[in-house]
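Example 3.2
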Amino acid sequence: MKQLFLLIAVFMISATSFATTQHDITISFKGNDHETDTSLKIIFQLSTNDTLAHKALMKQIGNITSVEPSTKIEVICHGPGLEMLQINKSVVSKKIKEFSGKGVVFNACEFSMNERKVLKENILPSAGFVKAGIIAIVKKQNAGWSYIKAGF
C-alpha cells in the first residue's frame, strides 16, 4: 500500500513539474472569436493564369480585409500566375491597385519573368518583384506567415 502511495506521489510531482515547464499561449476570447496579441500574416501563392481564380483571389482578399483589416497580406505570382500582374493581361488591375493602396503586397517572380520574357515595365506599377517566388514564400512561412495556395 505504501508503494502505491509513493508511486502516486511521484506521478503527481512529475506531472506538476512537466506542466510548469510548458509554454503557455495566451488567447483571449470575445464572443466566439479568438483574439491573439499578433495580427494575421498571410502569403498567397498564385501560379495559374485562370482569370476566374484571379477574381476569386480578389474576393478572398476583400473578405479578409473586411473582417480583419490589420491582416498583412502578400501575393506572390509566378509561372502562369504572372499574367495577373501583367498590364496587358490582368483582368483585376483595378482591384490590385485598390488593395495595394490598403497595404496588400503583390509581387512578381523575376525567374518567371525571365522564363516568359516579361519585362518589368510590363508589370502593373502597383506590383513589386521578388527574385524567386518559391524562395520568397518559404521565407515568409519561416517567418510565421500562413500559406494559402490561390486558385481552384
